[in-house]
Fold each of these.
Amino acid sequence: MGKVYLLGAGPGDPDLLTIKALRILQSADVVLYDRLVSPEILALANPHALLIHTGKRHGQQEEIQNEINSLMLEHASQDKTVVRLKSGDPLVFGRGAEEWALLQAHGIQVELVPGISSAISVPALAGIPLTCRGIASSFAVITGHNQKSETPDWMKFRGVDTLVILMGVENRVRIATELIALGRPASEPVAFIERGSTDRERVVISTLAEVSRGQVDVVSPAVCVVGEVVRLRSQLCANTVEEQGVLIAR
Ligand SMILES: C[S@@+](CC[C@H](N)C(=O)[O-])C[C@H]1O[C@@H](n2cnc3c(N)ncnc32)[C@H](O)[C@@H]1O
């Protein structure tokens, strides 16, 4: 019986792969990869490996998930080393736990290789720390849509300083409107970071009010950050000592 590695590819930049992930990728027989895994990372896989794209299309999630499950079982039962390659960390909104449980139920050996999640790394690379002494002492990572296409219960996150929203681009107007209705200031800063860590990265800084009015153009995939920490970007990414000094002098 083969083995399946549930392997995190990180946010996109191949330099952010772990050494363990690289080593396993280079010895894989089969790599089943998701839509967000970058071509640069795939290029690092064993040149003889069979690469299978498993990207999910809207409305066909369950059908495609069943295909992925069958492919993992089929190749693992042929004594192969199978890598199930997911963007970021495999257990952060990636159905990694479900796949792990399924493989285990079929008696297949599974090893998890954590990856650097986009939830933390993408804001950090854009100069937005999720916590900062005196500004934010808590953060939550939330999905912007769930399987029934409903937005989450935002009430649960009312007291959280920084909200990190994945898969929130499509529902951004609704999300911002609900957050304002729950009492977050309309002037609260919001950042969208598209394609973080890649050379196609784009950062859009706005406010909840503007997002709720549909005035902010963003393209998926993007990480959305809501909170005062967004203002730190202008200091951390500043070019002059005077601008940087604001944070240091606090
Ligand atoms: C299905 S979730 C997977 C999250 C992944 N497991 C992780 O830990 O980063 C996909 C969402 O992650 C975010 N995402 C992943 N990689 C990203 C990147 N390089 N730049 C911006 N957003 C990214 C986007 O919000 C995207 O819609």
Amino acid sequence: MLPKNELRERIFSILREHDHRLTPQREAVVEVLIENSDAHLSAENIFMQTKHNYPDIGLATVYRTLELLESLGLVHKFEYGDGQSRYEVNQSADDHYHHHLICVKCGGIGEFKDDLLDEIEHAIAKETGFRVTDHCLRFFGICSECQAEPGENSDDD
Ligand SMILES: [Zn+2]
Ligand SMILES: [Zn+2]
Ligand SMILES: [Zn+2]
């Protein structure tokens, strides 16, 4: 995981490289994404938090900024399963995306950083000639905290 200042510098320099101005609105959105780099925020969440530092910003601007950052590969967007997209900063241009562990009880989103798909990626390349450059995996289940709650192992609830 990159330190926040390096992450910020990487995002700003890629925006500049692609001739996108660093407006105060964009900067405010990037700041929220960096401060919540492991939180998997929805656009609404990002909007609410950005409003703190930049009260004039509108939801449409937040969406447009997120789309721009996503198109440049700076932000990952993933579907959570409830119709609400979540966003997180892409820590590295080279690594494959980490896996998400979604708890169907509390809605918590955990992460699993080891790829563990090398064998599958090689098998796909060998059989189809397709070169895997990334993937997006969601595992659904019950997190350890929810499993520890009383009643979780009984059927009578
Ligand atoms: Zn992989
Ligand atoms: Zn849970
Ligand atoms: Zn994540």
